[in-house]
Amino acid sequence: MPNTSSAKKRMRSSAKAAELNLTAKTRVKTTRRKFLESLESGDKAAGEKTFREYCSVLDNAAKRGVIKKNTSIRRKTRASKKLTPAK
Question: N or C: which terminus of the chain has fewer CB atoms within 10 Å of its end residue's CB?
Answer without folding.
Answer: C
